[in-house]
Automatic annotation (TrEMBL):
It holds the Pfam family Anoctamin. Residues 26-35, 184-197, 210-224 have a biased composition (Basic and acidic residues). This is Anoctamin transmembrane domain-containing protein. It comes from Paramecium sonneborni. Its main location: membrane. GO terms for cellular component: membrane.
């Protein structure tokens, strides 16, 4: 009995202790939960914000990653872009869809091609899926380098944090590419041997593996049985407690020690945990790879379901089956099902989990460079094929680079990009076009210089003035009225109210009306004339009053009385009356359109008034000249009787330039000059050249194009020719856009009444407009050869198409040829005297012509300085500074910058560069030694031919021809050597690279071309045995004749060897390319086919380049430098060389012009104010000409036989004095340019006032060009006051 009671007491005690343990454990657990909940509730708001920021960062990173992996929601992006650019939307766009474009892409394109411009810039990428594409591997380190150095440009346009996101997205995208498989090159014997070894190993390991498997299975079964028994014991003990059943002490001990003494089940759990720890040690990239295996299985299952249901649907619906409808329904249903079952697998989410900081995990990773299958070549037959875009995530590195570059331009720069594959399949073209809003915004950021509309800025400078520059409308003749005239005018006004006024609005031919009126006006004299002029002036004043209000013109300076007012003739007042009649007629037409609220007329009102003033003045003078013409006026070009301010100054009117800003206010739309930009007569503030310049700037701020070109990630990069502006092929260009109109890409808007009225006004006013106001003629037609003035070329039109740098080159070539024509006449006379006159007259001619050469070369340089200053004022280039761009090929060591503390600045030792320059100098010296040896050998050949009594013409001509050939051969050799050493010197800045190249070329070509001349002219007496000046057996010492023969041959050879290849080589190259190129003849029909063919044709044109880093202007200027050297240094020996040089320059001008228009890709427009270092080179040659001409007179011509040193010194003093007197008398800055600049300064201050926002109110004077050729002077508002 006692024993039973003791057992029951023990069992109750054990149950009680167990219950207490469990209760304590539960209370502890609840307390932990409460503490965790409390901590969660007391989370600081700062941490919540950090979490929100982190979420936004992840979303942004995810979006960028989606772009780079071609998995982005395009619709949402384009809608955001549309909001930013404020584009209009139409319902019609949503209806359009075909196999090429979705509705959003169509909507994007429709807003782009409305200006009928096929594109601004083209980026040509190699097609990585082409059969001949380069195959290779790309490591993770390579991918980092490509993004950091080639794709990314660090500017203020994009924040560093955003660049970091782009970098991470690019590297994550790289990890999704296809793995690179190294090709194994093994022989059959090696393969058979390897197979035998593998078979033997498999046979040896087959039996032991089976035994091991059996032992492992037995161990697993035992462990499982023991675990099951142990679990059953635990469950039985727990159930006994819960059911108040008696349990023994062992069961109690078992449950009490659950936490401290793990069972075999816990041991197994710990083993699993250790295995999980091993899994956690796996890299994040390895986890991603495992995930992608699961993801690929899901995609495979999804595709199987798609095909299964598609087949069932096709059987049920038959002909009513729609692939698009079925696809939309299937994927909508599939996504819904996956959401319900929680089976959605997001690959981008898993990709973002990869730790990019752990670079070691990517050490052995290499991805394929090309052949990713993004594009697939589908053969339709043996010849015809099509490229099919799979539109999948990129699987090769080149495709990833291309997609990244395009998305950076679209996302960050907001430019439009369109891709197409070339007909050969070797290239992928990306056509880049800037939106009008983007161009405007970027122009403000770049602070580009824009021209203000002349009619807005300085309209009243176009009205007639007297010799004192005072307007005729303010003269006392018009403003001071006596009592008789006042009464007569009052009476006339009363009668005029009763009589109908002349119908100016319906006057279609104002010029013809004024011509008939002039017959009547010529009869007015004295008071009759004054009365009619005053009456007409009063009517015009009403028009001018509205003009002043419309354009916000300040006329406060006119409220003064004229002092010392001079009188003008009645004939001038009669012509002025015709001017007033024209102003009144056109002014009433414009005011009527304004009353009708014609927006198109109001937006161009300043431009219209400028045309009216020019038209009225031009027609009045033309009518006068038609009645008063004679031979003397025709000869002098005196065809005007009344002049505006610019006519009195004999200056072409030029509107001022200033930094561009978005104008505001009622007249703000008329502030900036507008241009005709296409064949449809559309007008814009930005000509196509400026759009290309701005678009190029946008691209360079987001992609390092030059680096990518160097590393061949990009094949070509060039702007697109406009066929209408260049060649006048407007009808051909319209054919490009007809398919776009048919397919809804361009919507033809009905011409409004205001537009029709405006164009009618333009037709009436166009004949007196400036050449660049209307795009009436193509550049090719304007540049046709002028037999009367063969050097003439339209600089303004060339500038508007090619930019200032090319225009300045043609301006220099034009100026050079113009300066040669009068020297050609003088040289012909001098050559005749030197060839047939007496010895004394010949000697006089030599001395006289040497003085002429010194004067000509000095005037040439001084007047060119003035010409380029005037050029810079005309085109707003006074303060132009070339960008210090870094060379893409520069490679250096990364160090800390001493200037700005940049820790990763590339640096290259100047000492190493100097050593390489010394090496280049030594190699150049060796080549020059070869040149000298060649010169000596040719002279020995000449002497041999003379001794052998060859024909005199042959013995003198053949050596000269050989000399010309050797010059060209060594030039070609040194071109390659010089460029190689220039690259080896590793210059960091592109301008220093170009300067170094120019210096090398100039020095070598100077030596190569003139070593023979210097030896013959000045060293023949020291090398008597060479007989350098022997002409024949009778004439053994006539250096002038030898020099003359050599120069004749060289000039004629240069005309043939330098100009003809420029015309023939492109034709031969195009013919060969046509023969060897295989292209797809049967293109897929699409609206952009004709546009794409034209763009691909332009790729085949020759780039205007000296090499990959320097444009073609280096070679062009070099030709002119060498020619100028021949003329200035040794022209005295052969005066007729000037006529040959004139012919050569005319030919060069026409050839260069033809090449630019037909054979060359359009070069990127660049600004320029001067010809740069070439001006220094020309001046050095002009200075050296003093010494060579003095030396030729003293030491070569045999005129001076005694006291040669003293005479040489005297001639040097005379020539130097003459040169510097001319330089003193001819200022570098012409008065016209200074006057224009001062006028512009005054005009801009008045014109810009009222069109700036409050934040930019201090702008007025600080950005005006105040000094020609110098930097901007910043003037504060306090200083102005």
């Amino acid at each position: 009995m006692e024993s039973n009671n003791s057992v029951s007491r023990n069992s109750r005690a054990s149950r009680q202790s167990l219950a207490e343990v469990l209760q304590a454990h539960q209370e502890q657990h609840e307390q932990e939960l409460k503490s965790k909940l409390k901590k969660a509730q007391t989370l600081s708001s700062k941490k919540i914000r950090q979490q929100q920021i982190q979420t936004l960062k992840e979303q942004s990173l995810r979006e960028i990653l989606g772009f780079f992996t071609n998995q982005i929601d395009v619709k949402r992006f384009l809608k955001n872009k549309k909001k930013l650019l404020s584009s209009d939307d139409t319902e019609e766009a949503e209806k359009y869809q075909d196999e090429f474009l979705n509705p959003n892409e169509f909507q994007e394109m429709k807003h782009i091609y409305g200006d009928c411009n096929i594109g601004d810039v083209v980026i040509v990428f190699p097609n990585p899926d082409d059969e001949e594409a380069q195959v290779g591997e790309v490591t993770f380190m390579d991918a980092e380098k490509v993004f950091d150095k080639f794709i990314t440009v660090i500017t203020d346009e994009v924040s560093k944090s955003y660049l970091k996101k782009e970098r991470d997205s690019f590297l994550l995208s790289y990890l999704t590419l296809g793995d690179y498989v190294k090709p194994e090159k093994k022989t059959k014997k090696q393969d058979e041997k390897k197979q035998k070894i593998e078979n033997a190993q498999n046979n040896q390991n087959q039996i032991p593996n089976k035994d091991n498997d059996k032992d492992k299975d037995k161990d697993k079964d035992k462990e499982a049985q023991q675990n099951n028994n142990h679990i059953e014991q635990q469950q039985q003990a727990q159930s006994n407690i819960n059911n108040n059943k008696p349990i023994d002490i062992e069961e109690v001990k078992l449950l009490q020690n659950l936490k401290d003494q793990p069972s075999k089940n816990n041991l197994q759990q710990s083993q699993q945990n250790s295995e999980n720890d091993k899994i956690e040690q796996e890299t994040s990239y390895q986890k991603y790879l495992k995930f992608m295996k699961l993801y690929s299985e899901q995609l495979k299952f999804e595709e199987e379901q798609y095909q299964l249901q598609r087949n069932e649907s096709m059987q049920i619906l038959g002909e009513r089956f729609s692939e698009i409808t079925f696809s939309q329904q299937f994927y909508r249903k599939w996504q819904k099902q996956k959401k319900q079952e929680d089976l959605i697998i997001d690959p981008l989410k898993e990709l973002l989990k990869i730790d990019l900081n752990n670079i070691k995990q990517f050490k052995n990773i290499s991805k394929q460079l090309s052949k990713g299958g993004y594009l697939v070549k589908k053969m339709n037959d043996e010849v015809d094929y099509d490229w099919i875009c799979q539109n999948t995530p990129p699987k090769d590195f080149l495709t990833l680079v291309r997609i990244t570059a395009i998305n950076k331009l679209c996302r960050n720069a907001f430019v439009h990009c369109r891709q197409f594959v070339s007909t050969t399949g070797k290239h992928i073209f990306v056509v880049v076009k800037g939106h009008q809003q983007v161009i405007t915004r970027q122009a403000q950021k770049m602070k580009i210089t824009k021209q203000i509309e002349m009619g807005f800025a300085d309209l009243f400078s176009l009205e007639p003035v007297d010799e004192q520059f005072r307007p005729l409308r303010l003269k006392s003749y018009v403003r001071i009225i006596d009592d008789d005239l006042r009464n007569l005018l009052a009476q006339e006004e009363q009668e005029q109210n009763k009589e109908p006024e002349f119908d100016y609005l319906n006057c279609q031919d104002v010029e013809n009306y004024c011509l008939k009126l002039y017959i009547k006006v010529r009869q007015w004299k004295g008071k009759d004339l004054k009365y009619n002029v005053i009456k007409k002036q009063r009517d015009v004043d009403k028009i001018l009053k509205e003009v002043v209000t419309d354009l916000n013109i300040d006329q406060s300076h006119e409220k003064v009385e004229l002092i010392d007012d001079i009188q003008i003739t009645d004939e001038e007042w009669q012509v002025y009356y015709l001017y007033l009649e024209s102003i009144l007629c056109f002014g009433k037409k414009i005011q009527w359109a304004k009353e009708q609220k014609m927006k198109e007329v109001i937006d161009n009102i300043a431009f219209l008034y400028k045309l009216v003033f020019l038209k009225a003045l031009g027609d009045a003078n033309q009518i006068w000249y038609a009645e008063n013409q004679n031979f003397w006026r025709e000869f002098n070009g005196d065809k005007r009787i009344i002049f505006n301010l610019w006519g009195r100054l004999n200056i072409t009117p030029v509107a001022p330039y200033t930094e561009y800003f978005k104008s505001t206010g009622s007249a703000g739309s008329s502030l900036w000059r507008k241009y005709e930009i296409n064949e449809n007569k559309h007008r814009s503030e930005f000509i196509n050249m400026e759009k290309i310049k701005i678009t190029n700037s946008i691209i360079l701020k987001h992609i390092n194009i030059l680096k990518m070109l160097q590393m061949q990630y990009i094949f070509a990069y060039f702007p697109i020719h406009d066929l209408h502006q260049l060649k006048g092929q407007g009808e051909l260009k319209k054919q490009f856009f007809e398919p776009l109109k048919k397919n809804g890409f361009i919507i033809d808007k009905e011409t409004s009444e205001g537009e029709k009225y405006l164009r009618d006004l333009f037709k009436e006013l166009a004949d007196e407009a400036e050449s660049t106001d209307f795009d009436s003629e193509s550049l090719e037609k304007e540049s046709q050869f002028n037999y009367r003035v063969p050097w003439d070329i339209p600089i303004d039109s060339i500038r508007d198409y090619f930019g200032e740098k090319i225009a300045l080159y043609f301006n220099f070539l034009n100026y050079y040829a113009k300066q040669l024509w009068y020297m050609a006449i003088i040289s012909i006379v001098t050559q005749g005297i030197m060839s047939s006159s007496s010895l004394e007259l010949r000697q006089t001619a030599i001395i006289g012509f040497s003085i002429v050469i010194i004067i000509w070369s000095t005037f040439f340089m001084e007047f060119w300085k003035r010409e380029q200053v005037y050029f810079s004022v005309r085109f707003g280039q006074q303060n132009f500074e070339a960008d210090e761009a870094e060379r893409p090929a520069f490679e250096g060591d990364f160090i800390r910058s001493v200037l700005n503390d940049d820790l990763n600045e590339e640096f290259y030792s100047p000492f190493k560069r100097k050593m390489k320059q010394l090496l280049a100098l030594s190699i150049s010296a060796i080549i020059i030694g070869c040149v000298i040896a060649c010169v000596i050998g040719i002279n020995l050949l000449k002497n041999k031919m003379i001794e052998e009594k060859f024909d005199q013409t042959l013995s003198n001509t053949l050596p000269s021809i050989l000399q010309a050939i050797s010059i060209n051969v060594f030039n070609v050799i040194y071109n390659t050597v010089g460029q190689s050493f220039n690259v080896l010197e590793n210059h960091k800045i592109l301008s220093t690279y170009e300067n170094s190249l120019v210096a090398k070329f100039t020095i070598f070509r100077f030596v190569n071309n003139f070593i023979q001349f210097f030896i013959t002219s000045f060293l023949s007496n020291y090398f008597v045995q060479l007989k350098l000046c022997q002409v024949n057996l009778q004439i053994t010492n006539d250096c002038f004749q030898i020099l003359s023969n050599q120069m004749t041959t060289i000039f004629l050879t240069n005309i043939i060897s330098l100009q003809i290849p420029k015309l023939v080589a492109p034709l031969i190259k195009a013919f060969i390319l046509k023969l060897i190129t295989k292209k797809d003849e049967k293109l897929v029909e699409h609206p952009f086919n004709k546009i794409d063919e034209e763009i691909e044709r332009q790729l085949k044109l020759e780039p205007y380049q000296t090499n990959e880093e320097v444009d073609g202007s280096v070679n062009d200027y070099m030709e002119l430098v060498i020619q100028f050297s021949y003329l200035s240094l040794f022209g005295l020996a052969f005066p007729a060389c000037y006529i040959l040089a004139f012919v050569q320059n005319i030919v060069k001008l026409q050839v260069d012009k033809y090449n630019f228009f037909n054979y060359s890709r359009r070069p990127f427009p660049q600004g320029a104010a001067t010809i740069g270092n070439w001006l220094i080179i020309f001046e050095m040659i002009s200075f050296l000409a003093i010494f060579t001409n003095a030396g030729l007179i003293v030491f070569t011509s045999e005129i001076i036989k005694e006291n040669q040193v003293q005479v040489f010194s005297t001639l040097l003093i005379v020539f130097l004095t003459l040169k510097y007197i001319i330089r003193f008398l001819v200022p570098d800055e012409p008065a016209e340019a200074l006057l224009l600049n001062k006028r512009h300064e005054f005009v801009v201050e008045k014109a810009v006032k009222g069109f700036q926002t409050e934040s930019n109110a201090r702008y007025l004077m600080q950005n005006v060009n105040r000094r020609i050729g110098g930097p901007k002077q910043i003037i504060s508002s306090e200083e102005e006051d």
